[in-house]
Structure formats: C-alpha cells, structure tokens
Amino acid sequence: MKKYRPLIEIIIFILAVILLSSCNNKIINHQNKSDISGREKVLLNKEWLFMQYDSAEEADDLIYDVRPEVTDARDDKPADAEPTEAIEVTTKQEVLKPWILPTGNKFIKDSTQHYDRPTGNPGENFPFVQSDFNDSSWQTVDLPHDWAIKGPFLEGWDTEVGGGMGRLPSPGVAWYRKEIYIPVADKNKSVFLDVDGAMSYSMVWINGKLAGGWPYGYTSWRLDITPYLNIGEENQIAIRLDNPPNSSRWYPGGGIYRNVWLVKTNPIHVGQWGTFIKSKDVSKASAKLELEVSIDNDSEKEVLVQTNTQIFSFKKNGEKDKDAITTFDTSEKRVPAKSTIKILDSITIEDPNLWGPPPTQTPNLYIAETTIAVGGEIVDIYKTQFGIRKVEFNGEKGVIVNGEPIFIKGVNQHHDLGALGAAFNKRAAERQLEKLKEMGVNAIRMAHNPPATELLDLTDKMGFLVVDEMYDSWERKKTPLDFHLIFPEWHEQDLRALIRRDRNNPSVIMWSTGNEVGEQYTGEEGAKVARRLREIANDEDPSRPTTASFNYAKPDMPITEESEVINLNYQGEGIRNAPAYAHLEGINTPPLYPAFHEKYPNKVIISSENAAAVSSRGTYVFPVTAGISAPVSDTTGGDPENNYVSAYGLYTTSFGASPDKVFTSVDKHPYVAGGFVWSGWDYLGEPTPYYLSRSSYFGVIDLAGFKKDRFYLYQSRWRPDHPMAHILPHWNWPDRKGEITPVHVFTSGDEAELFLNGKSMGRKKKGKYEYRLRWDDVVYKPGELKVTAYKNGKEWAEDVVKTTGQPARLKISADRNNIKADGKDLAFITVEIVDEEGLTVPTAINNVQFEVEGPGEIVATDNGDPTNMNPFPSHQRKAFNGKALVIVRPTAGKPGAIKVKARSEGLSNSEITIESHSDNEL
Ligand code: GAL
C-alpha cells in the first residue's frame, strides 16, 4: 500500500482540483475571503489614522537616509535641460536604511549581495509605533489617499512647491496607523502586507518593530510581517512616509495613494507575482504556453509539493469560465525548508482566442489557476490573468501583433487623475482611456514610472499596447532630490519588481528603463548603466524588448546600442530645426530617423515622445502663425496676461513640433512604427510655458477631461473611417468684426467646403503632408460657420459653429447615469453654460455652485483651466470657456438616487439624477 501512496495522493489532488474548479469561480485579485486553499487577500483601505507634520523641521528624525542640501530649488528648468551628477553626502546621524534594504532581497539575483538585517529596532520607543499610543486626534482616512490634492495651491514665484510640482503641498513627512486583528486560526499562516504604491520612502513598524519598507514611490512591494505579529490579538501597523521637496518634475502626489492588501497564505504557497506565462509559436491554430511557478516554503520542513495549473477562458464580468480548456500536467517537486523553487512546464493550446488591439483584433484574456498540494491536500490556489499573443518587432514594418503590423497611435500619460490627484481610482482611469480610445489611441506610454496594476488591468481589457517605464532618472539627477538618490542601491530591486508584477499583462509590449536620462550625455559610462538595466530586464523577461527614451543620444553613442527598440523623444522629427525655431537656444537636432534607421536597420524606431504642443481649451490668440508649427512665446500663440495658449494646435515648447509637423515627419519615414504624443491628458505640474500655473498645457484633453481642438486633429488621422469634421475657433468675437479670423477644419475626409452665413469661403483639398484645411483669410462676421467635408468626392461629414447669445441657463449631463454603490465608482458630471437656444457659450466663465442630495458626495470640481487656483474639493467652480466638471462619489452600500444640482447667479438652474445601484443590480 505504501508504495502506492504518492499515486493515491496525486489522484486525490486531481479530484480535488476538479471539484474546486466547479465551485470556485472568482478571480483572486478581487477576492477578499479565504477560499478552501487558505489564501486570503483582504483590501486594507478603510479607516487608517493619518498625521502629517506641519513642516519638515518639526518632523521626527527616523530618517531613511540623509539627503544632499538643496542649493538650487528652481523647478522651472526646461524639460530638456541636461541632468547633472549626483552629490555624495556623508553623515554620522543614524539612518534606517540598513533595516529597509533587506525588504528588497528577493529581487536581488546574486544572493551574496543580499542585505542582512542589522540587530536592534530603530524607532521602537517612538510613540507613533506603539500600540497604546493615543491616535484619536489623528485624521481618519481611506486609501488610496493623496494628502496633497486638497491643496491649497501655492501661488507665486518663490513658493515652497512651484509650478513644476503642481503648486500642491506634496512634500512632507507623515504617518499612517491601523490596527489589524489576527485570529488564532492564522497561527501557522504566512502574513504579508502588500503596498501597491506609497509616495515615498516608506518605512513600516509592526507592533513597534521596524519590519522594512521601500523608498521608490511608484513600486509595488510586499513585506513579510509574519514574524512581528501577535496571534489572537490586535496588531499595530505604523507607516512613515517622507516625500522630499524638489524631488520631481511633475506632481508626484503624497501618501499611500494606491491599494494596500493583507495577504494570508499557508506556509507553502505561490510566491509574490510567482507565475509567468509566456506564449510561443502563436498562430490562430495553436499556441505553446510556457509556465513558470515559484513556490515558497516558509516552513521549517522540506515538503513534497504537487502542482497543477488549469487554463480557463475569461468571461466579461471578470470571472473565469466554468470549465477548464486545458491543464498542465501535475508535477511533483521537493521544496527545501525556508526556500523557493521554480516549476517549469509547457503545454500547447488549440484554437486560442488571441489577445490583440481593437478595432482589427480582440483583447481576449485567459485565467490560469495554479493549485498546490502537499500530501494530496490543497494548500494554495493562485490565479493569473494573461493573454496569448505574438508581438514581433521589425525594423521596416514596425510592431506586428499576431501577424498584423499595428501602427502605434500612442499617447504619454502621467499617473495623476487630475482633480483626484495621485490617489488611484479605477473609474477615473477608465474614463481617461475611454476618451483616448474615442480619439483613436491604441497605445500608452506610462511616463515615467510604474503605473497602478489596475491601470494595466484596464489596458489588458481594452486592448491598448503599453510601454511600461521605470525611471525618469538613473544616477544623474534632474531635480535635486529625485530618485537618483536611491538608484545605486535599488535599481535592481525596482526593475525586477516591476517586471515580475507586470509580465503577465498582455498589453505590456516592452520595458523602458528610463526617460531622457543624464547618462545619455556620457559615453561608455552611461552605456554601462543602460546595459546593466537591459540585462536585468532580459533576465526577468526574455520575451519582451527593453528600451530607454533618448532626446539627446545619437546613433553612434554607445548607450543607443543597449536599446532593443529605438525610442526617440522629439529627435526623430528634429529639435529646433525648423525656421520658426532657429533663434532658440538648446539642443538642436536635424530629423534623426534616417540616421538611426541606417545604424540600426533591424531595430524598430518609435517616436516615444513627440509634439509637446501646448494649448488652453477653447482659447484663441491672434494673429495665427502662417506656418505649420511655431514655438509658443508671449507674442506667438501665448496670452501672457491670462497665462493661456492659443488652441489652434500650432504652438509648441521650444523643443517640440506641432501634430502636423510630427505627422509629416512620420509619413516621410514609413519605417517609423508610430509614436506617443506628449501628452494624452493634461496633468498636474510642469505648466510650460506659464510657470505660475498649476497644471500642464500639453494635453490633447484638458485636466477635467474636456477635449481640446487637437483631439479632433488626432482623431481625423487615427480614425480615417470615422466620418467627422471639426471647425475651430468658436464664433463669438464681438471685438473682431471685420478682422481676419482664420478658420481651420480637422476632418477624416480629404476635402471640405466652408460657408460663412451661407456664403462659400471656398472648397479646399488636403495636399500631400497636409493634415488640416485652413481658411486663413476669413473676415469675421457673426453668424454661422458650416463645413461640409468630402471623402473621395462624396459627402462625408459636417460641422456647424454658431455665434451664441448671452449665457441663459445651465445644461448638465453625466458620463453615466447608472453607477455602483460601492464607494469607489464615480460619476463625472459636466455643466455647460448655454444660451437661450441651448448653444454652449464658448467664452462663458460663470461661477457654478454644486450640491448633492441622496447617497453620494462631491469629491472634486474642475474646469480644465491650468491657471485656476480654487482648491479641487471646492463645491463651486468658475466655468472655463463654457464648461465645468463635478465629480460625485456614491456612498458605499447605500443604493439610491443621487441628485446633483448646479446653480449660477442669473442663470436657470439645472439638475440631474444618477442612480446608484447595489452590486448585483449592475
Ligand atoms: C520631455 C520629457 C517629458 C516632459 C516633456 C514636456 O522632454 O521627457 O517628461 O517633460 O518633455 O515638457
């Protein structure tokens, strides 16, 4: 009988797996109670106690490390300024870094380089880490939490936080505390604290003991808190964050701004991000799946484990299909005590539903369910969402997905969500992606840091291609206290953590290790750093190429050898090389696509950043440049009195190029695989060219989510089959009667006729390398502008713009009228100031007051105006060029009607009702 035992155990195990797959149908990511395997993943977002010191001087001295003194705090340097060398600092002060570094050991490949935890427990006597500390005066907050987004905005030239970082109080030292009860039933469990993102320099104490932490504010990280827990009791978590000033070129946010989870497993379990599923030999007929599973044995005994992985189709509602499509063979392996092993397996799947970008392909997903058993008893079940696709990189044809060349119609996106700040919210991110999709976008570059995992979940489901990026600086700094300070000690851990976390996301097509890093300006020295990062990335994931974005490095510089895909910022179309830019100082580069293509004929070239065009939605400045691209200045496209930039879409930063110029350049170099616009949405910080503002002018969509005119220029190019025409500017110019007021039209047609008050202004056809139709000599007369666009000689689309009357009433509309009563969903409600006939008054700036009745609350308001210093939580907002936005959150667990009312003096009110539904109703 003894001889048959292993066989019997395997049979019991297989039966258990079959039984389980029929009853357990939820994805682990969304699951918050223990399944039969004993794995439990609980969202730990509710009711943290929070305290922030009033100033850095008052903060405690439990510091991660000393920092260099800041001698030059200006954050208005141009984005293409050359990064400079790091400064070395030495100190005798006690720093806590030695206790934090071991947290990253699992991400350092060479175990001889692992950090040993020193003896002692720094901070253990500090009151905030004690369980009996009275924190009742602290503020109660729910995560994700961004301590700075509520403001106030710091206005003026010499403020502690300038325009570069968004004028919001993100720097500072703060503490979060929470008690968690660990029941006796968890006595033999491994317990982990998973932090998806905290800004920054996190250090965690559990029951007064410093358990570890992680400095980079964008990395997701895990702490094994098992050794510090008291079973059958309340346990005190205390997290200290320290967000330095002068640490970023944009708004970083501050606080625990992503989810925090408590994960409990049996001691034998799938490791953190412990599965990797690669698809090989992919065709419509079949695909080979290679599976890697890391199994951790946290116990003191060696064990024999049986592993089995089943593959399921993914259903739309986030659940897996009932029956498994196929199963990897059950394998058996020994896992020594206190160690990790890897199990490798492969399988061929017939007729796979491939993952690919719409509209020509479908982003199909699968779920792999890995079950681990010991002695026939299931000890862990772990689910992995993945996609099957083949991505090829071809120097002539570009990026090829499942055999189809996909031209990259991409945008760069920063991590903030406008008025909601850095605090991640899935609906807000989804709304950003929806609008980008409407524009025709099929790719996102995560500029310049790891995104929230939920964002990649969305890009997977919606079918975007993603460049997943690590850093904005390596060893050379861009701002005095940016993350160059931790690069030498943390780059391996950060990069491996990013790749392990995101390697199963089919939307991710390449890893970018850096953006415009200072190492470009060095020779072999910089190439060495790039090589090290490439080797780490290749080691973690040989299936995707690695890149870094260059705005300076030339083809003959050694650093470019290290990029497996050539990602060029602005250099492709040339920097400051057009006549309108000739007088400017700074990097000057001719179009470099040909030089790079010649040097690297087999490498794909992507314009990872292009345009850097700037505009304020609905604002037009005259005269309009006759060229196709011009640098913005106080006299060209800029309105220095109001700090606005004209929205004709022709004005750019000194190193940028208008969309038209970028299109021309890409079309002249057909091997270019496409590119990423800087930027898709406006973001907080970097308000070039008007430093006194609080948010950017780069977005094709403004900070509130309203489309600027440029939206339609991109749509006309990226969705050629979508009939559309768009006229600009608006036609309310009482002071311009008789004056030349150029009219431009963006259309996916090839020809159009413009009429002013019924009179033809002429029919025009797009010439070669022309992307807009322009009637630059129209003399303004109030009335109606109408355009009829043609494609191949046939009527294709129409647009009408009318001179409106005075503001008369408010018009209110919502992005969705039905939302979930889960306390996380959001309704984005737009208010337009309209005239008697219901036409939006394009210059209206009326002040609007918002109010909510029913189970919901106002989270923020905005209007997309980068100069508006009214704090985001305010319930009143001036319209900007006719529009304002209010963001409403439903109360968790209280379904019902939420009435949102808008009032404005002298105008008729308006209201809308949003239905908030319980989970099972939607
Ligand atoms: C680039 C940089 C971006 C942004 C952009 C616009 O040089 O990579 O992060 O700063 O310029 O200013």
Automatic annotation (TrEMBL):
Natural source organism: Autumnicola musiva
Superkingdom assignment: Bacteria
Ranges where the Glycoside hydrolase family domain occurs: 810-913
Domain DUF4982 positions: 738-797
Positions of the Glycoside hydrolase family 2 catalytic domain: 397-571
Recorded family membership: Belongs to the glycosyl hydrolase 2 family.
Alphabetic keyword roster: Glycosidase, Hydrolase
Record-given protein name: Beta-galactosidase GalB
Matching Gene3D superfamilies: Galactose-binding domain-like, Glycosidases, Immunoglobulins
Alphabetical list of SUPFAM superfamilies matching this protein: (Trans)glycosidases (SSF51445), beta-Galactosidase/glucuronidase domain (SSF49303), Galactose-binding domain-like (SSF49785)
Glycoside hydrolase family 2 immunoglobulin-like beta-sandwich domain span: 275-389
Pfam families, alphabetized: DUF4982 (PF16355), Glyco_hydro2_C5 (PF18565), Glyco_hydro_2 (PF00703), Glyco_hydro_2_C (PF02836)
Entry-linked NCBIfam families: GalB
